[in-house]
Amino acid sequence: xxxxxxxxxxxxxxxSSSGLWEQVWGEHMHxxxxxxxxxxxxxxxxxxxxxxxxxxxxxSLQLTTxxxxxxxxxxxxxxxxxxxxTLYLAEKFQAAGMGITLSPVQxxxxxxxxxxxxxxxxxxxPKRSADFLVxxxxxxxxxxxxxxxxxxxxxxxxxxxxxxxxxECYRVLKKDGIFILATWCHRPTDGAELSPAEQKHLQQIxxxxxxxxxxxxxxxxxxxxxxxxxxxxxxxWSTAVAPFWxxxxxxxxxxxxxxxxxxxxxxxxxxxxxxxxxSRGYQSGLIRYxxxxxxx
Length: 296
Fold this sequence. Notes:
The chain is α/β, with parallel strands linked by helices. The chain has a single domain (3-295), classed as Rossmann fold (3-Layer(aba) Sandwich). It is 48% helix and 18% strand. It has 12 helices and 7 strands. It has a 7-stranded mixed beta sheet with strand order 3-2-1-4-5-7-6, sandwiched between helices. Helix 3 links the parallel strand 1 (74-78) and strand 2 (96-101). Helix 1 runs antiparallel to helix 10 (255-264).
């Protein structure tokens, strides 16, 4: 499949499904964090905020710096959805955030939410704002060294060229800037290649969620090194986030969500019906949640 066809499919999927996902997942269209052992009892949307905060805390520990003290005045949120993380970070850092996605529907909703939160870019408040743009992460319309922080929360799995993706992240990041990546992975394959059953399971996930492929966390680390990122750290949070899928399954099948699901079209219905694929993937150890941070 060509990159342009895949991009169009991803755009159409999120154009049609984002309204439902906002209703089911909330404004943060990503996993939640349930403590290192995955047993922390926390409301789902709070768990999604906890994931953001834990990513910042962990990165600060790995890079031996408080991110808030590194003067993050500009940041990029790649695969921003409807702006959940962008708005949260803009408020937290009192910074100018830019979110990009392939979906015009998501951009329109994110801009609307920025206005609701008083974060729409304006001449009177240029440093505390969030703007959004339809853009391809493999060919971003930004100058070299534009951002203090590049943030990618569960978008790497959609990238048809992981090498080019990380190269672009490196290019737009300022010298000494911070890169944070959290993404769906498959298990490491050192000494044990993926079995036919595992490959079939992954292909089913690819087909439903319009993913070209996923790779292992060690492969992401190797790509980051080849892109000349420095001070690279990685960790596996699969146990910490795995409960999220069962929580989503439970919330997706109430009467209101089912009605919205039926109105949103077949691709979205397939995505909802396939939630169990992710849950079972975590249970078997095939699906992993990889986290990486680095400096330029």
